[in-house]
Design goal:
Mean pLDDT: 87
Strand order of the largest sheet: 1-2-3-4-5-6-7-8
CATH superfamily of the largest domain: Ribonuclease Z/Hydroxyacylglutathione hydrolase-like
Largest sheet: 8 strands, mixed
Radius of gyration: 21 Å
Order of helices and strands: EEEEEHEHHEHHHEEEEEHEHHHEEH
Distance between the termini: 46 Å
Number of strands: 15
Number of helices: 11
Strand content: 15-25%
CATH architecture of the largest domain: 4-Layer Sandwich
Number of domains: 2
Structural class: alpha/beta
Bound molecules: zinc ion
Shape: globular
């Protein structure tokens, strides 16, 4: 099997190569792109625009140029997964087709799910101070230097079969991390490529989903994320190759760890609400008191997303209630429903409290 540690690529299965591409920051860590050589040369995710030359160099070592690639499949619409796709299309003189799920179309083709004004309104409802609203928009602008948007030629849907290299893959819709996240499963070989839906070293964030015409997100990302995990559990892959980090041999125990972390996080939030009525931002700062540094606006975004998506579910189960005050949403505990679930302090410290792409830690 071909292997080159200097260029950080290696053959994970006959004619399937993992290429490791750098990404700033230590979480979630470098991006794994996968190239399937053979009948239908397929690139699964591309890394950012900033690492397109590293990708090109690694592919050349494997004996592939951009014009040899038949299709790019994108697991989801985040910049570290689609950022270099346009450059590859240009490098192939437009011969490469791009395939992704339709629900991530606006992220991949335009970079944003909703207009900026609507995003600001959401942040106000979450009680986020103005300084972080402005600085987060600045970060998004900086992000645009790491990716070029590109058109999607083919929409993939759940259950569809697609040829990747010499292998037949099944598309599995696994919404939660984004609404259009997909996993690719080589059934005969028992190999799953879940994108960011399952990572071995951190819990992926079930990102809040903003929608046009609604000030507050309607879809429940956490519920979708865990429903999607159930799907993966049912197919029980032999090995999982995620989009960041090392392969996962025992996916069942990784999923069990996600579930434990999920329920402890909910109990933590309820515990905070026994002490007062707070906005999403205020709950987040109590839950993650240590966040700081130059990535703070991004950490605030992740924190708000994490807390709000949990509150959505707690509210649906009638364990918390919310009310509007001076343009911000406040949450309070619904005691008789929640008291049985309040988090017991002695359980703390058993789990990792980091969230995706952040250095947030337990209180
Ligand atoms: Zn992602």
């Amino acid at each position: 099997m071909k292997e080159n540690t200097r260029l950080r690529y290696h053959e994970i299965y006959p004619r399937i190569y993992r290429i490791i591409l750098p990404l700033p920051g230590d979480k979630p860590g470098p991006v794994n792109a996968y190239i399937f050589t053979g009948k239908t040369v397929t690139l699964l995710d591309t890394g950012t625009l900033k690492t397109v030359h590293i990708l090109e160099h690694a592919l050349a070592q494997i004996g592939i140029s951009f014009s040899d690639i038949d299709q790019i499949i994108l697991t989801h619409g985040h910049i570290d997964h689609y950022g270099a796709a346009r450059k590859i299309i240009e490098g192939s003189r437009g011969l490469v087709t791009v395939a992704a799920h339709e629900e991530d179309k606006s992220l991949i083709e335009h970079g944003m799910e909703v207009p900026r004004k609507q995003f600001i309104k959401y942040y106000q409802l979450m009680g986020v101070p103005l300084i972080f609203q402005v600085s987060f928009l600045l970060i998004r602008w900086l992000f645009s230097y790491m990716a070029e948007n590109c058109r999607i030629d083919r929409f993939l849907s759940d259950g569809e079969k697609i040829l990747m290299g010499d292998y037949e893959a099944t598309v599995i819709a696994t919404p939660g991390h984004t609404r259009g996240s997909i996993s690719l499963y080589l059934e005969k070989e028992g190999i799953l490529f879940p994108g960011d839906h399952i990572l071995g070293h951190i819990t992926p964030n079930a990102f809040v989903t903003l929608e046009a015409d609604f000030d507050l997100p309607q879809r429940m990302s956490q519920v979708e994320f865990y429903d999607s995990l159930q799907k993966i559990e049912e197919i029980s892959p032999r090995i999982v190759y995620p989009a960041h980090g090392e392969p996962i041999q025992n996916v069942g125990s990784t999923i069990a760890m996600f579930r434990e972390q999920f329920s402890l996080r909910q109990k933590d939030i309820l515990s905070i609400l026994t002490r007062g009525e707070y906005t999403v931002y205020q709950i987040g700062r109590k839950l993650f008191p240590d966040i700081s540094g130059k990535r703070l606006p991004l950490e605030i975004f992740l924190m708000v997303s994490e807390v709000y998506t949990h509150l959505q579910l707690l509210q649906k189960e009638d364990k918390v209630a919310s009310y509007l005050d001076k343009g911000a949403l406040y949450y309070k505990i619904n005691n008789h429903k929640a008291s049985a679930l309040i988090y017991r302090a002695e359980k703390r410290g058993r789990i990792s409290c980091s969230v995706y792409a952040s250095a947030i830690s337990c209180p």
